[in-house]
């Protein structure tokens, strides 16, 4: 109970509004939504934001449905809908600006600034975010790597290895590149 309270306090100090409060205020969220730490979803205008199924927001993602840059000059704040499709991953430290539609089956690279629509089945990255490759190419490239590298699975995670051995395993597996982790159990 104490650790749960401590976590809630940390989130409040960081300015994270609980997802339940955002939904109550009008945010629309699909199934299997994952929000990592320090994600900020515009609490002022969350009713303009729709998030689809199977969406992962990595740490420190910001989603904005308003732009107050004109307020000191003209006295107006721009508002715009943000729609995030199904099967979308938005990388750490990315910002999604107002009036943007992100299609289905999209990966947005870490540190991206999404200021324009993102078509379905694409990988984008950068500031401003630009098309890098199709999702099919991205998945194909990574499937080839998966076939020839170390995979840490549920069996490994649930094993009785010491922390030191786990560190050794991960360090060794990634010395020449990447390894992969899955929540599945691989025989």
Tally of DSSP helical segments: 6
Q: What is the domain total for the residues?
A: 2
Coarse shape: elongated
Span between termini: 37 Å
- CATH topology name of the largest domain, in short, is UDP N-Acetylglucosamine Acyltransferase, domain 1
The major pleated sheet works out as:
6 strands, mixed
Briefly, what CATH class of the largest domain? Mainly Beta
Low-pLDDT parts are none
Question: Helix coverage percent of residues?
Answer: 25-40%
CATH superfamily of the largest domain: Hexapeptide repeat proteins
Give Rg in angstroms. Answer: 19 Å
Number of beta strands: 18
Oligomer: single chain
Strand order of the largest sheet: 2-5-10-13-15-16
Short overview:
It contains six helices and 18 strands. With 187 residues, it is an alpha/beta fold.
Notes on the structure:
It is a single chain. By secondary structure, the chain is α/β, with parallel strands linked by helices. The protein has two domains: 2-134, Hexapeptide repeat proteins (UDP N-Acetylglucosamine Acyltransferase, domain 1); 149-181. Helix content is 27%, strand content 25%. The chain has six helices and 18 strands. It has helices at residues 2-13, 19-24, 71-74, 135-147, 154-158, 163-173, and strands at residues 28-29, 34-35, 40-41, 49-51, 55-57, 62-63, 66-67, 78-79, 82-84, 88-90, 95-96, 100-102, 106-108, 113-114, 122-125, 130-134, 151-152, 180-181. The chain has a six-stranded mixed sheet. The radius of gyration is 19 Å and the shape is elongated. The model has no long low-confidence stretch (mean pLDDT 92).
């Amino acid at each position: 109970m104490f650790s749960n309270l401590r976590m809630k306090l940390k989130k409040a100090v960081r300015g994270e509004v609980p997802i339940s409060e955002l939904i109550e205020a009008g945010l629309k969220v699909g199934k299997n939504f994952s929000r990592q730490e320090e994600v900020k979803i515009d609490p002022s205008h969350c009713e303009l934001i729709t998030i689809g199924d199977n969406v992962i927001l990595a740490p420190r993602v910001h989603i904005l449905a308003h732009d107050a840059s004109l307020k000191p000059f003209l006295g107006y704040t721009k508002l715009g809908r943000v729609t995030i499709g199904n099967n979308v991953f938005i990388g750490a430290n990315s910002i999604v600006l107002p009036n943007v539609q992100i299609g289905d089956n999209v990966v947005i690279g870490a540190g991206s600034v999404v200021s324009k629509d993102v078509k379905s089945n694409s990988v984008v990255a950068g500031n401003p975010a630009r098309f890098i490759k199709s999702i099919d190419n991205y998945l194909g490239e990574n499937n080839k790597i998966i076939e020839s590298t170390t995979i840490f699975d549920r069996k490994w995670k649930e094993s009785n290895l010491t922390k030191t051995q786990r560190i050794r395993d991960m360090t060794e597996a990634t010395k020449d590149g990447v390894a992969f982790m899955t929540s599945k159990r691989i025989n």
